[in-house]
Structure formats: structure tokens, C-alpha cells
Amino acid sequence: MPLTYDTPPATKPLDLDELKDHLRIGSSTAYDDYLNLCIEALAEELDVNNMLQWAFKRQLIEATIVFTLSDFKRKLELPRPPLQSVSSVEYRDKDGTWQTVATDNYEVNSDADPGFIRFSDDYSFPALLGDEEYPVRITYVAGYSDSEGNSTHLQVPANIRLWGMNVIGDLWQNRKTQIVARSSAEVVQLVQQMGRLKAPHNAGRRFG
To answer: How many Å apart are CA 124 and CA 151, to the nearest integer?
Structure first.
């Protein structure tokens, strides 16, 4: 049941200045490139296309996600909470044409964690294209935001931000034994090794 971004997050879940305060670096910009690389690597690890998504489970910065499925179910939980809204529910009919399910055929519960869609009991699921692996797709918006619709690092829960800064802090403390000018792939590998052990909000079911 693949997940992809239709509209990816517009910003990163950690802020450079906040990270520098956490690491007690002060106003020095000497290591900004390295720290930005670490922030980028952490964001890549938490990306919807990364397998760590199944461990971490949260969408931190608001994004539009496409969730594809092999079939309909009366209740469909949507990965990567918190759910904000559902844009569309579509299916590929037996003739191979994408059709949109009318919104009055289902209700959306965005207060649940994870949020879900529940189809009306009197809604008959349509016939799907037989040779399509994932003929059902749901497009929705998920991620932390405030009442005014802002979605930046400030809306990410504090314990998640602290976890991220601690992961990068481990890299920072050991920087003298590393080559600072690492490639993104090397930093990602380090974040993987540390982050998988510490990520909060890991509870919940596996989707797919």
C-alpha cells in the first residue's frame, strides 16, 4: 500500500537556530553547512517514501499525501497522522478510467489518531480494474499545524523536536572522529543508526 507525496512539506521539522541553541554553539556560523546537512538527512529519514515511515508513523510538516490500496474497505485508516482533511477518494473502474467517489458516500474522522474514512453502510463498492495492483487512491492532507494554518517546526510536538536535536547532537558530539564534509548519504546512514533507536510516537498499527 504505497504512500507518495503529491505536495511535499514546504519546510524542515527542525530549525537551524533552535538546533544551535540546543547544541550551545551560539551565533557562530562555522558549522552551519554541516548542521543543515544533518537536518536535511533527518528530514529524508522521516520522508513518506522512506521505510522508517512505518516505524515513525507521523507526518510532521503539513503535506498532501496519496495513499493507494488494492481494494475498498468499509473503514480505511490513513497513515501518517495527524490527518487534516481528505481531498478525494478515487478508484479505477473496470474500464480503466479513474472515478471519484462522491463525498456524501463517506465520512472523515480527523480527530482520531490515525484519522480514517468510513464509507456509508448503504454504499456499494464499485467494480475495480482487475489487473491494477492499486486501483484505489486517497489524496489527503496531514501534518501538524496551528489554528491559523501555519505548519513549521514550531507546530511539531516538542518531544519530537527534542528527539531530532538529540539525534543530531550525537553526531555533533562525535564530530571530531568523523569527516565533517560527509556526503548526504553518509549522514543519512548515521541518522538511521541513531534515530531508529530513539524515535517517539512509534506506537500503533502497521499500515499495509
So the answer is: 37
